[in-house]
Specification:
Radius of gyration: 19 Å
CATH architecture: 3-Layer(aba) Sandwich
CATH topology: Beta-lactamase
Shape: globular
Number of strands: 8
Strand content: 5-15%
Number of domains: 1
CATH superfamily: DD-peptidase/beta-lactamase superfamily
Largest sheet: 6 strands, antiparallel
Order of helices and strands: HEHEEHEEHHHHHHEEEH
Distance between the termini: 31 Å
Helix content: 25-40%
Strand order of the largest sheet: 1-3-2-8-7-6
């Protein structure tokens, strides 16, 4: 048995040092040997998705171990776009006894990305469709002092002290968060699934995969059952694009076995969902 443990540990160490540059393989942790599933995830992602326009980070939800990464610097804060919305919603909830308003999204007229508008939306449907109009309304009078406690609780960088309004919607370049801290914050959402506000957010992420901006994920899976949040952010690549599409995907929804963060250069979050869906499909196969 000792020989098996030593062999597993040596394999883990070798896999960590096998990566170069932004390409990182499994990060083993003490008392968490590399599993066959982690090796499969690493192999599929690092061998099948080598496009320079695609960055990804895959986490084991049970151990917090990085199973695969192709990201230049996972600790370097970036603009995550609408991926901040769940944490903004929790900050609002703390200030309003977790009573969330209903809102009429009128599309472009009310500042939403969807020209025709989403109509009547709640927090859950606003997460599912990443409704900017809803979150503009929710954050109209919010301050960084109100958002920072939630950010700190979930291990995120806090927004700059003078930030307000659309900074908490992810519509400008004020609030930057590192990819590694971001995925761990989403993992913490799942761990707190029974808490007020979190239930509605996770329901919205399930709805996103079923019929919202993340529908391409469920569409790709043999057994559609994921939690998804999409986002589109200001491009930070040297070759500037219209934006970068982001997606956080976890599957299966009830007890996630993988948490995946994907960024695709030059596309929207809903288009990035296609890439994440294909990744999960190949892992599933």
């Amino acid at each position: 048995m000792d020989a098996i443990r030593i062999a597993a540990r040596l394999l883990a160490i070798l896999m960590v040092f096998a990566g170069t540059g932004g390409h990182q393989t499994i990060q083993a942790q003490e008392n968490h040997p590399v599993t066959l599933f982690a090796q499969t995830v690493n192999h599929v992602l690092t061998h099948d998705f080598t496009d320079d326009n695609i960055s990804f980070l895959a986490l084991d939800p049970h151990t917090g171990m990085v199973m695969a990464s192709r990201w230049e610097n996972v600790d370097q804060p970036i603009y995550p776009g609408s991926l901040v919305k769940p944490f903004t919603a929790l900050a609002y909830g703390e200030q309003h006894s977790y009573q969330y308003p209903t809102h009429i999204c009128r599309g472009k007229a009310s500042g939403c990305w969807f020209p025709r508008g989403h109509g009547k939306v709640t927090l859950t449907s606003a997460i599912a469709y990443s409704c900017n109009s809803y979150f503009r309304m929710l954050t109209a009078s919010m301050t960084a002092a109100e958002v920072s406690p939630i950010a700190e609780r979930f291990g995120l960088e806090s927004p700059p002290p003078r930030s307000k309004g659309i900074a908490f919607v992810g519509l400008n370049t004020e609030w930057k968060i590192s990819p590694l801290k971001l995925v761990r914050a989403y993992l913490e959402l799942v761990n707190r699934r029974d808490q007020p506000g979190v239930r509605q957010i996770l329901a919205g992420m399930a709805q996103s995969a079923q019929q919202g901006t993340g529908t391409e994920v469920d569409r790709a899976l043999r057994y559609p059952d994921a939690l998804v949040k999409t986002g589109t952010a200001t491009c930070t690549h040297s070759k500037n694009g219209a934006g970068d599409g982001f997606i956080v995907a976890m599957a299966p929804a009830d007890q996630p076995q993988i948490l995946l963060l994907v960024r695709v250069h030059g596309v929207s979050g809903s288009q990035a969902a296609k890439v994440a869906g294909e990744m999960l499909r190949r892992i599933q196969n």
